[in-house]
Amino acid sequence: MGLREPEEIQQQIVRETFHLVLKRDDNICNFLEGGSLIGGSDYKLIYRHYATLYFVFCVDSSESELGILDLIQVFVETLDKCFENVCELDLIFHMDKVHYILQEVVMGGMVLETNMNEIVAQMEAQNRLEKSEGGLSAAPARAVSAVKNINLPEIPRNINIGDLNIKVPNLSQFV
Amino acid sequence: MLVPSLKVQDLIEEIRGAKTQAQEREVIQKECAHIRASFRDGDPLHRHRQLAKLLYVHMLGYPAHFGQMECLKLIASPRFTDKRVGYLGAMLLLDERQDAHLLITNSIKNDLSQGTQAVQGLALCTLSTMGSAEMCRDLATEVEKLLLQPSPYVRKKAVLTAVHMIRKVPELSTIFLPPCAQLLHERHHGILLGTITLIMELCERSPAALKHFRKVVPQLVQILRTLLTTGYSTEHSISGVSDPFLQVQILRLLRILGRNHEESSETMNDLLAQVATNTDTSRNAGNAVLFETVLTILDIRSAAGLRVLAVNILGRFLLNSDKNIRYVALTSLLRLVQSDHSAVQRHRPTVVECLQEPDTSLSRRALELSLALVNSSNVRAMTQELQGFLQSCPTDLRADCASGILLAAERYAPTKRWHIDTILRVLTTAGAHVRDDAVANLTQLIGGAQELHAYSVRRLYCALAEDISQQPLVQVAAWCIGEYGDLLLEGSCEEIEPLQVEEEEVLALLERVLQSHMSLPATRGYALTALMKLSTRLRGDNNRIRQVVSIYGSCLDVELQQRAVEYDTLFRKYDHMRAAILEKMPLVERGGPQVDEEAKESKEEARLLEAAPVPTEPQASKLLDLLDLLDGPSEDAQHPRPLDPSPGGALVHLLDLPCAPPPAAPIPNLKVFEREGLQLSLSFVRPPETPALLLITVTATNTSGGDVTHFICQAAVPKVCKGFGGGLGTPEEATE
After folding, report:
1. What's a GO biological-process term for it (chain A) (predicted)?
2. What gap in Å lies between CA A29 and CA B326, rounded to an integer?
3. pLDDT digit string, tens, across residues B176-197
4. Which residues of A touch B95 (CB under 8 A)?
5. Which residues contact B118 (CB under 8 A, 6 or more apart)?
6. Alpha carbon of B125: minimum distance to chain A alpha carbons (Å)
7. CA B659 → CA B181, B656, B717, distances in Å?
8. C or N: which end of chain B has fewer Cβ atoms within 10 Å?
């Protein structure tokens, strides 16, 4: 209820959950009574296995267990739509985006929205907002590298026009 | 020129490139140093990127507290990019334990009132995740305003934020209750979902709110009906069911509103029947809705026919091949076992089958349910099944299973013999997992069943001969053999086949227990005492026993050594008393922590008290000192007082001494001062009505020939007794 666990406990919970879930066969139920670190007996872990990933939700008795299974599916499908065929690397390299998407599905520990189209539309709008705000520092990497690689013609060092000698200063490298 | 900072993705690449934990730490520490420097320099352009990197590192478990203030700065920035990361940082790094968290209240207030939709959404999300009570109080009116704003995106978030605020500050319920009625008219599913959650929270907190919201039952019924008949709408349907999440929430709320309320229950009856019969159960979503319906039917005052339908649906689910369905069915049946016991009993065979599940989550549920289903008519059959389960179940369930069986046996045992057999079987199968009081319970049980002494001792002897590793079993068996060894040797017993046991065999077995490295010290104690008792039960000579006892007189274990020495002394010097001391135990009253274990040892303990008063005395005299302080000033708080062993030595338990006040023993008079004919003595009296009070009389006597003048008597009182200073009386002159 708004109180985080200290970092070490958080990591311990993550590790314990990982071990508990990894032990599960594929043809048994998706519900696990929580480990010793997660709250009291009111909490359980509900998980779903997709390829190499496990999505684990920790819930209390006020949630419908079967409903959470569907909720995980909604979340994963939303990730898929937002990332276009999401894969593990997408989640690793864009962990902030994963948070933003999750914030549209679950808020304050309660289910907020389950309509995938709405969530995706909202995410796209917010991403556009971010892009439009970007200054030079947020310029697309491609643009920067394109300018870097422009083939500037050779600038002669000395231009001889009859008697005049014009020395051309050394221009610094474009960084 | 400044080296441009790493982009987030580049950092992640670097971290993933590290081949060892130490390398990873190095990369991260280097980057954190850069980030810290950047924060110090206050570079506003890249701040959001630095924080994003910090949050990634934090997710891996590294400290990130130095980013907390940066979150504040980013939240206060006008750019959406900054706010997004800043709010995320606040949610991940701040909570009410950090002082910094209050500082974002103002930013949130501004964003809530003036921000764009997206910004308002961010602020609401943060508030509902980490908002402390003070923050909630400050921002309640802002959130309330947003409940009626035109944008459904903001409204749905505002509603859920309201739920969080009520949880933190229950008084805010008064603000958020009135808008609910209007919000229920919304068509937007997100808002409806949030509103129903809000109403549930309000109802759970206040019976007045519950009564108030019963009015909306017809409206809820209507919403649910519309959902069911809308048909296929791509927007909210999950595998063909229209918005199962919303359906489930409505059903929950209906459950809360209909509980113990005839009228509401009636209103929803038809709808529940409709959902129960028409929901498509081929996919998970439909099953979720159906389950919720079943639970609601069983929780409200529903018609009898509907109840039967509900329990049957649960029974059907128990047979479903989908493990998840069976899990939820078992959980639901467990909830019903109190209220609809006979209905659940009908499914007992299926439940028992589920014990065989390889899936531990399922078998655990099945175990709980099976134990709850045991009653006097099925106890034999159920115990049989549970014993079977105990033999093969996973280790983490053994303790629960064993104690469950023992408890059920205690409640419903048809005969004492069956009871003893059951406990025996549990001890043999899972001895290491039973609770500590199982030994005491069994000895109590056996002791009280006189007709079964011969039977018990025989069975225990056989069990012990087979296996001396299960400690509780060994302890009980040793005790029994000691007590009833004569019955063991008699040879015949109607209940089981005749067993011919030689004296030497019995002694050998007990010696094996004594010597085994598997035996705990307590177990050894039992065995030694049993051997001793046999010295009076057996007909042969006692040389073997005497030998063993004298060997253990030099055992390293102090407890065992003490016993052995005492028993040895019993043989050598007090042989005439031996038979009396070692005769059969009387049955001790059951109850409290003083059970057979102590009663059985009480004779030895009385000796312990006499033999070694020193270790117990300082404890007791400290206690008496405490009592003195309460009584009043006393000069002799420092004088040590001897501890009288309590008169009825037999049943004094070592455990009692620190807790209960020692029995009041009369304290002899003390002569405290004698010089040049002046004698001072103290006498002590405890008035019987107030045993906590100690009256001390100082008597001054002049035995010299002459007068004593200017006699002043002053009492020194420890600081603690300052309050009791009064009542000493004025110094008096005494002349004689």
Report:
1. intracellular protein transport
2. 9
3. 999 999 999 988 899 999 999 9
4. 2-4
5. A122, A125, A126, A129, B80
6. 6
7. 60, 6, 27
8. N
